[in-house]
Structures are given as C-alpha cells and as structure tokens.
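Aim 2 progress. For DUF8129 domain-containing protein, the working sequence is reproduced below.
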Amino acid sequence: MTEQLPIPDYDELPLSALQHRIRSLDEDELNTVIEHERAHANRTPVLEQLTGRLEELRQGASPTSGGEEEPADTPPHSRSGSEVTPEPPRGKGRPTMHGTSSRSGYGIEHR
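Predicted structure tokens for this construct:
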C-alpha cells in the first residue's frame, strides 16, 4: 500500500516550490509529509522548512489556501527578440553565402 501525501508530486518538487505548497497544510498533514521525508530522502533543508512551518502552526499560525494555478517555480513563457527566418541577410556590405566564385572571398557584391 502506497502512502498518500497531501501534496501532489511531492518527491519531484524543488525546495523553492515546497515553501508555498506547505502553507495550506494543517498539523496532521504536515506531520505526514515530515514522516515521509525522514523515511525516504531525509533532506536536511526540506526537513528544516517542514519543521519550521510545523512550529509556526503550533504557535498559532493558520493554514492558508494555496490556490496556485501555476506552480511558483514555473517561469512565465514569453517570446522576445527578433524573429528567426531561414533567409540569409541581404544588402550591400553583408557577407555573401558560402561557395562564392570570387577569389577575394568577399563575393561579387563587395567589389
């Protein structure tokens, strides 16, 4: 029987995303994750983050909704810069394509 963790894909999450995901857990759920971490990877930075959040809950903090549609570690995708085309550069003063018949190596358009 496999253990059901309160955080989907927990074992694949980077530390930076885990910080945001554990905010929505209550003490019981957090203890489940701590036990899983100790029994499997036992990563010190992760355990410090988990036990730190557990201490916050014990001191009166409340779980907050973690309604992220996109994980915090996913960068937004945007296109920028110039469009790339398969066409070679054109115009005077630009190098010619390979295989020119000029002896100078500069091509006929540079004379």
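Residues 44-58 form the longest helix (15 residues). This observation will guide construct design in the next reporting period.
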